[in-house]
Amino acid sequence: MKIINTNDANFKSEFENILSRAKTDIKHVSAIVTDIIDEIVDEGNKAVKAHIEKFDKWEVQSDEDLMISQEDMKKAYENINDDLKKALHIAYDRIKSYHEKQLPKSWIDFEKNGTVLGQKVTPVDKAGLYIPGGKAAYPSSLLMNAIPAIVAGVEEIVVCTPTPNNEINELVLAACHICNVSKAFKVGGASAIAAMAYGTETIPKVDVITGPGNIFVATAKKLVFGEVNIDMIAGPSEIGILSDETAKPKYLAIDLLSQAEHDEMASSIMITTSSDVASKTSDEVEAYLKTLSREEIARKSIEERGAIIVASSMDEAIELMNEIAPEHLEVMTTNAFELLPKIKHAGAIFLGENTPEPIGDYIAGPNHTLPTGSTAKFYSPLNVENFMKKSSIINFSKQAIDELGEACAILADTEGLTAHAESVRVRLREGK
Fold first, then answer.
1. Within-domain flag for 306
2. Could you say which of 51, 99, 177, 328 is catalytic?
3. Among 320, 341, 364, which residue terminates a domain?
4. Per-residue pLDDT averaged across 147-156, rounded?
5. Per the domain annotation, does 97 fall within a domain?
6. What CATH number did the domain enclosing 293 receive?
7. What is d(CA 194, CA 201) in angstroms, rounded to the nearest whole number?
8. Cβ-contact 224, 192 below 8 angstroms
9. Where does substrate bind (predicted)?
10. Which residue numbers belong to the known binding site for Zn(2+)?
């Protein structure tokens, strides 16, 4: 694994490459996705069926073929073994408990002059969840996206998942059953995003779309934003690790590889204050690579997008990691909690050697749908508020408008909005 030192002459250029890890040219993809969206808008189910036949390689005979029944979900759940059922339920309970603590509250404030101001928080009516399917099994993604919507109080949850060759992922269906999903469809890719954003004869239009996906899915979410809300535009998975001389290289190596095995575009970056730990971790990475079922994918990721940086101090290491703003950040030092105030930008922060990133993926409770590619500088993890919106509450008494009305009218005059000003002044005159 590549090791670079902050004192190296070429460090600045090497670090710039790390910072640009998520940049992709989406112009070509945007053109393709725009055509897909336009076809869905113009032709509805007809276009959805054509896209499924083209991309997922099976022929849709009727609109009903697009649907996944709750009976199928229940059957899938009943067919999984008891240990897996138990694990899914443990995950469900922990994720639900965590997200219940996020619920925002409506509030009302009363001023002395009779003014009443407040905020009313309500869930969206319909949420659309995109869940990767096919050969990969992501029941955890279903739980992580559905449970915040359930906690928020969303009335209707719509799931879209791809089914190559009309093969439904049984684990995703089992998770749908646990979450009591009412509507699910065998549609994937940009087509699914467009269908949920604009609606078709069969697939309902939703208010917000969340969930991970490839570059076509991410581009589609970007293009439909405004027609619906979205959670974020996520790129390839990534991990950052801060470590000192006390960290165990074996732990560090396998944690770096836990992200590298996702896909070739994943990034695994460690910043350490110990040259010895850097060297030993690199050796452990090579040893572990040979044992992985996805060795080819992980090796390409590590070789092309992985790096170990040796910093001169922990303060320098943290400063660099804040610039990287990784999706997942592990802190493997003797004083992990003491460093927490200095960490500003990360999707999720894992403290201590007994908190590997996969714990967050499945069972800890916080959401694993996280901002990537340095967007943790301004995006948050998927949470309950992604499925809610706020309305302002305003009520002025006679005393309040008498006290504040003329100031309001003056500001309206300044902007040249005479009707605005008069709507206030007519009340002031009538009240005398």
1. yes
2. 328
3. 364
4. 98
5. yes
6. 3.40.50.1980
7. 13
8. no
9. 237, 259, 262, 328, 361, 415, 420
10. 259, 262, 361, 420
pTM above threshold 0.90: yes
184 and 126 both lie in a single domain? yes
The two three-digit tokens of residue 140, written as one number:
């955890």
Q: Are residues 218 and 131 in the same domain?
A: yes
Q: What is the mean pLDDT of the segment spanning 128-138? A: 81
Per residue in 191-246, pLDDT (tens digit) is 999 999 999 999 999 999 999 998 999 999 999 999 999 999 988 899 999 999 99
Q: Total structural domains in the chain?
A: 3
Instruction: Please indicate, yes or no, whether residues 84 and 163 belong to a single structural domain of this protein.
Output: yes
Take residue 128 and report the two structure tokens written for it: 């659309």
Q: Residue 294: pLDDT above 80?
A: yes
Position 373 in a domain = no
Catalytic residue of the set 327, 330, 353, 357: 327
- Cβ partners under 8 Å of residue 389, min gap 6: 121, 122, 124
Same domain, residue pair 160 and 243: no
Angle, alpha carbons 96-102-104 (nearest 5°): 130
295 plus 203 within the same structural domain: no
Residue 418 domain boundaries: 396-430
Please state, in angstroms and rounded to a whole number, the distance separating the CA atoms of residues 326 and 387. Answer: 24
Binding positions for substrate: 237, 259, 262, 328, 361, 415, 420
Detail the residues annotated as belonging to a binding site.
237, 259, 262, 328, 361, 415, 420
Is 328 one of the annotated active-site residues of the chain? yes
